[in-house]
Fold this protein.
Amino acid sequence: MPVPLRALLPRLAAARPADAAAVRLWLTERVRAELAPRIGLVPPVRSALDEALPALDRLDDALDHARARLDPGPFRPEMTVHAAHARHSGVQALFARRGLPGCPDCPVGADETLAEAAAAEGFAVGELLNELEGLAS
């Protein structure tokens, strides 16, 4: 089994400090030589990503709304905050009263579940689910 370079360099430095410095310099030069031709790709790739991100955000929101519409079941603890927002227009006001993420575009809402949101604010998820079901009925 090969020894990882990170483990090898300290051993080499302890045994032969001058050799370790030479190896480190050689590795640095090799890495720079490998990366140099690719460095020019960074700005155009970053620019393309910056242009694509708003469209990806809109797509993510559309998927959340579609998922919420396709799921006719009750509000559940594992449902995300965004899915709850997409399910009913009254969720935003209810969440705001409870101190939960009140906007359907909040960054945590895509990953945070209703159970996690309730726990973060210090109340039982059952209370929140009952209030949400009251909106739906």
Q: What stands out?
A: Residues 42-70 form the longest helix (29 residues).
